[in-house]
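pinned: reference chain
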Amino acid sequence: MTIQPITARRSAWRFLHPGLWLSYVGHLFRKWDARLFGVDYDQYHRVLKRLVLDGRCESLLDVGCGANSPVGRFAALISRRVGVDTHLPSIEQSRNAGIHSEYVISNVLEIGEKFAADSFDCVTLLEVIEHLPREAGEQLLAQCERIARLKVVVSTPNGFLFQAPTPDNPFQEHISGWSAADFRSRGYEVTGTAGWKPLRGPLMRPRWRPHAVFRRLSLLTERYIETRPDQAFQILCVKKFPQG
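pinned: its structure tokens
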């Protein structure tokens, strides 16, 4: 007869335990923090999805796809997805994640030899062009524009942003910088992402301390910067072709 009261007291103690309330308060804080300020990369993924899927996109060539391409968030909505990269470990990680339906291991500067003109509805070049010398980047853009039937979507930091190669991937080094004006001159529409440029530094980390404060300030500027890409930390660019 005493088991039930003891069980009830234990349940009440669990309910009153400080750890439980701290966990609950932490959950509420994170929830309202995300509502008030937003979450890193959410804007980028939202804009990218809109640019790629707007209109028709039944086939996509993801140039320099890497290990964890952003198109993975909506890849299931595209029938044919081909990832191209020169770094075999990145290809294997992407394959294991099931991001693309096909893979080609190749130097990205050779895609013009491997894919015919107008052979994909959309070609994406996401965080790739800044890893190439300026002249090579211009050549790659021209190849992407030839292969794409409907549109080319490019993302890159707005201007040169220092980044060193990593021990496991020397191709991560930043070599060139590209501005919103550069892409507008080629006929691209440009959207600003990642907030006001002075607030972020390498790897999109806050430039100043305390990081928590300046990260939130950057998030608060994202909506304003979206239509003012010249002031943005990062740019998303799309070039649509007449037949699209």
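why pinned: The mean pLDDT is 91. The chain is about 40% helix and 20% strand.
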